[in-house]
């Protein structure tokens, strides 16, 4: 499940796609977000931003090792 066409404050764009956190991502969220089940992250290359559904102001960034991989160069 995805949210499409949402604003990401890290990317500073309004056309970003968000997906639910997965696997190990849940273990590294900030303390204030522990126990939540509605955390979504931006899927753009290089982005680490996540937020609770419908509450962007309460968002944060995942640690560096969870940075989305860069897009593959076109051949």
Automatic annotation (TrEMBL):
Name this polypeptide is given: Uncharacterized protein
Tree of life domain: Bacteria
Organism: Streptomyces aquilus
